[in-house]
Write a structure and sequence with these properties.
Distance between the termini: 61 Å
Radius of gyration: 22 Å
Low-confidence stretches: none
Shape: globular
Mean pLDDT: 93
Number of strands: 20
Strand order of the largest sheet: 2-1-5-4-3-6-7
Strand content: 15-25%
Helix content: 25-40%
Order of helices and strands: HHEEHEEEEEHHHEEEHEHEEHEEEEEEE
């Protein structure tokens, strides 16, 4: 078949959807075969396909913080293992310093070689799936410690670990790594079951890509991978055409600040996003790995595009992102990062919307709630209010921006864990007022029936989510404990606390900011 230098618009649409469909198929397999509540019920996972150089081609609409950063993991594998990558191998990585987000998010990467046994030295494509493990070791159950200061305290690091070697699952090797750590994994059987689900998801991606090559020919499939990326690049450039320069400084509860300056270049139709002036690397775990910072920028610019495009490497081409090394948005080993992925990523997004004047702050936190013991480990993120914009109100009780997971059904939660969801309600009047008002947060009360360690890792308990153009701020969130004897304990933004039977953990999430004066 004749390959042109210009894509056929109809075919472009078909391939755009086909690539995305493959990633969605992978997600369905992962959800169906995983055992953990995190992956099966909360859908805290992401799947994507990449070209031969590890650049993102398409993904399913999963978790934005995963999707914009996974390409870094694939490229690090190519750089690290380039010559040794063989058919039938699967690699495992969660290293925050080369594409990982935080340690519970473990990525399985499978290279795709030609179906026939012809000697092809390098992969044609890569597929990858990233899933949030319920526990990957570290100093607290659930591997989201509020007070870690080094990455070791957050769990076990996989750096392009060979999980499957030419078709053989390396169970002993992976189990050894999970168990022989200063803070070992609490449920290695579940980790291994989820890793197998990720392998299965990737295998589906491999099969679907082979089918596609079989049907359209390799040259066409590869050509349209490039066309889909070019199309996304042009869509982002069109979105940039209407933007204006701007800057913003946003402080977080812990005193760290994110500073960003956006400069639009009309000639090149590109944007420079400069984070110079942001706080230095922190002793806390609110450092965001560079890949997470990039993912947040990519997310913001993707949301400004009206066209229906898959998020991919093309979206990054018009953007020059400057992140000084050693600042909290580009930390060096062994800086702790568990909150950077879930909390700082949200602050970056709001700071960028603030700089562009597009939208008031959302709740700006994922309200990460983990609890557990040696027997149980559970993690959830809790919704809140989204920010208002120039012609729309914010939304109540929604997962905002970099998180896009579900909340576990109360029936499932109460069946699998010794807790009761005592109430879960809207927090009225918590959104900022304005011409357009911010969305409301929620109140979530969980009663414990057994002794367990609970952790909250949250933001905007001190600094309110900002309004724009005269709109009011959203209300800050609150965390506290109601003890069995009726006494109350107020908690900070980040806290670890021992829960006893009958104690209730209460989380009030922030509202979004308003836009425009009334």
């Amino acid at each position: 078949m004749h390959i042109t230098s210009q894509p056929d618009p109809v075919r472009l649409e078909i391939f755009k959807n086909l690539y995305q469909f493959i990633a969605e198929q992978m997600g369905i397999v992962l959800q169906n075969t995983a055992t953990s509540v995190n992956i099966k019920e909360r859908l805290d996972f992401s799947c994507a396909i990449f070209d031969s150089s590890g650049l993102l081609v398409a993904n399913a609409p999963h978790i934005p913080v995963h999707l914009g950063s996974m390409s870094e993991s694939v490229r690090s594998l190519i750089n690290d293992q380039g010559d040794t990558i063989k058919p039938g191998n699967v690699y495992l990585s969660n290293n925050p310093y080369n594409g990982g987000t935080h340690l519970p998010d473990v990525t399985a990467i499978t290279p795709v070689f030609p179906e026939t046994n012809e000697n092809h030295p390098t992969p044609l494509f890569f597929v990858a799936s990233r899933g949030h493990q319920a526990d990957i070791g570290g100093i607290t159950p659930g591997s989201m410690p509020p007070h870690s200061t080094t990455v070791e305290e957050e769990g076990i690091l996989f750096d392009n670990f060979l999980l499957v070697e030419t078709g053989n699952f390396q169970e002993n090797q992976v189990r050894n790594l999970l168990v022989n750590h200063i803070y070992p994994a609490r449920n290695p059987d579940q980790n291994i079951a989820d890793f197998k689900a990720q392998i299965a998801a990737n295998e589906r991606g491999v099969q679907e890509l082979h089918k596609m090559v079989h049907q359209y020919g390799l040259a066409t499939v590869q050509a349209y991978m490039k066309f889909v990326q070019d199309n996304a690049e042009e869509s982002v450039r069109r979105a940039i055409d209407v933007l204006k320069d701007g800057s913003f400084i946003y402080e977080m509860d812990g005193g760290a600040k994110i500073q960003v300056k956006v400069t639009i270049n009309r000639e090149t139709r590109g944007a420079e996003i400069d984070f110079t002036g942001t706080s230095e690397q922190l002793n806390s775990n609110f450092n965001a790995p560079k890949a997470v910072t990039q993912a947040a920028v990519l997310y913001v610019f993707r949301t400004l595009v009206d066209d229906n495009i898959p998020l991919n490497a093309g979206c990054l081409k018009p953007l020059e992102i400057i992140i000084p090394e050693g600042c909290m948005l580009n930390p060096t080993y062994p800086g702790a990062v568990v909150a950077g992925n879930v909390e700082t990523s949200q602050t970056i997004v709001d700071a960028l919307y603030g700089a562009l004047g597009v939208m008031a702050a959302s709740q700006g936190t994922m309200n990460n709630f983990t609890f557990g013991s040696d027997r149980y480990q559970y993690y959830e993120t809790i919704c809140g209010g989204s920010g208002a914009g120039s012609n729309f109100d914010g939304t109540d009780a929604v997962h905002t921006h970099m998180t896009n997971s579900l909340l576990t059904d109360p029936e499932v939660l109460e069946t699998r864990y010794p807790v009761l969801v005592e109430s879960f309600s809207l927090r009225s009047h918590s959104g900022g007022k304005g011409k357009y008002s911010g969305g409301n947060g929620v109140v979530r009360r969980i009663r414990f029936l057994e002794p367990m360690t609970a952790n909250i890792l949250s933001g905007h308990r001190l600094v309110p989510p900002f309004g724009l153009n005269g709109g009011e701020s959203g209300q800050v969130g609150r965390n506290w404990i109601e003890r069995h004897d009726g006494s109350q304990e107020t908690l900070e933004s980040t806290a670890t606390v021992e829960m006893n039977p009958g104690d209730v953990f209460v989380i009030e999430t922030p509202g979004g900011g308003g836009f425009g004066s009334k």
